[in-house]
Amino acid sequence: MVPFASSAAASGSPHVEQPVAYDALLLAGFGGPEGQDDVIPFLRNVTRGRGIPDERLEEVAHHYRHFGGVSPINAQNRALKAALEAELARRGIDLPVYWGNRNWAPYLEEAVQDAAAAGRTKLLALATSAYSSFSSCRQYREDFARVLGETDLSGTVTIDKVRQFFDHPGFVQPFVDGVRDAVSTFLAEGIAPGAVRVLFSTHSIPTADAERSGPREGDDLHRGFGEGGAYAAQHRAVAEVVMAAVAAEVPGAQDVGWDLVYQSRSGPPSQPWLEPDVNDVIAQLPAAGVEAVPIVPLGFMSDHMEVLWDLDTEAMDAAAEAGLRAVRTPTPGIDPAFVAGLVDLVEERLHGTPAAERPHATELGPWFDVCRPACCENVRAGFKPAAAGVAP
Fold it and tell me: Helices (H), strands (E): how many in the chain?
């Protein structure tokens, strides 16, 4: 049985293929500070339970300080909420959208309580992350279970979650558009295809977490993900699809190479994290004859701090120092194709669309609706109950 779930999802079948009359959509975000006074309290929330002193948090805070202490993520989620509401209304779907964050106001607790107070008790959650890992999927599921317990709404409110959408065409298409435009521009400027290298960048995570991402080995849904688990495999699969689409559209692009790179690592140097780092790769490219790099924020939905600082600032500085032409391609943001794709995912669950009829751009999909036992577990933090998945 799946705790905290609708009756349709409670059996634990990977894909829920029967209609569910959800009465609200829960948009779950990470959260971010909205002023200089918010920065350290926000970072305390992010790192709660890890005992990190404020002086160390201040080393990270300068990224936010550089932008006036304001993370763009809340404004972007407000825009996404409005876009989702407009697309739902356009399709005649009467489903209010409640927005709550893990680490800053508006908090998930407030969103769930507001929904319940309005009589909305069958919630379908959309987390603002497309891939499978502890921080991008399971931690949100643990948040849902925690909130239901702390608000005494367990047994009254149920929370299901849309599938991970890394390979939904609506998410993939904005990346295709961005890479196509960047590559075609470099080639039109006379740069040889072999001198262009596309860098697909995503957030680095601890190697131990990456290896536990997705279903465990031995589960029927495990796909032999290889090094980096499902997290890395999903990114590689999407990058391959993007490059194939660009090669089909842009003459000469079939000779353009690419790499999957990582950014924004934190934690002690003794702890292994996924590599290579985007800036290390950029520094090596001139020796390989590369002259131009499209930098693609493949792991990100919108232009939040890791994109604005780690890519637009640090990676672009690294490219300039290496003498490379560089452009950072767009994130999906509120691209109409992306917003429509998210509402498609909602309709899948409203209608119980069979898995065989669900769109997916890679052979890894369509990803499952109900997470498998121990999927994306963080063993360092210990077991915590999680919604939208089979226990433990």
Answer: 12, 8
Cβ contact 22:59 at 8 Å = no
**pLDDT tens column, 218-259:** 888 888 899 999 999 999 999 999 999 999 999 999 999 999
> pLDDT band for position 49 (50/70/90)?
confident
* Token pair recorded at residue 199: 């860098």
Q: List the end-to-end C-alpha distance of the chain, in Å, as a whole number.
A: 10
Given a contact cutoff of 8 angstroms between Cβ atoms, the answer to whether 204 and 264 are in contact is: yes
pLDDT score of 41: 95
Structure tokens at 126: 């959309």
What residue type is assigned to position 29 of the chain?
G
* H helical segments located in 298-390: 305, 316-321, 336-351
Under 8 Å between Cβ of 375 and 138 = yes
Strand order in the sheet with 325-328: 257-263, 197-203, 292-296, 325-328
The tokens for 319 are 């490219």
Cα–Cα distance measured from residue 350 to residue 26, given in angstroms and rounded to the nearest whole number: 14
The answer, as to whether pTM is greater than 0.90, is yes
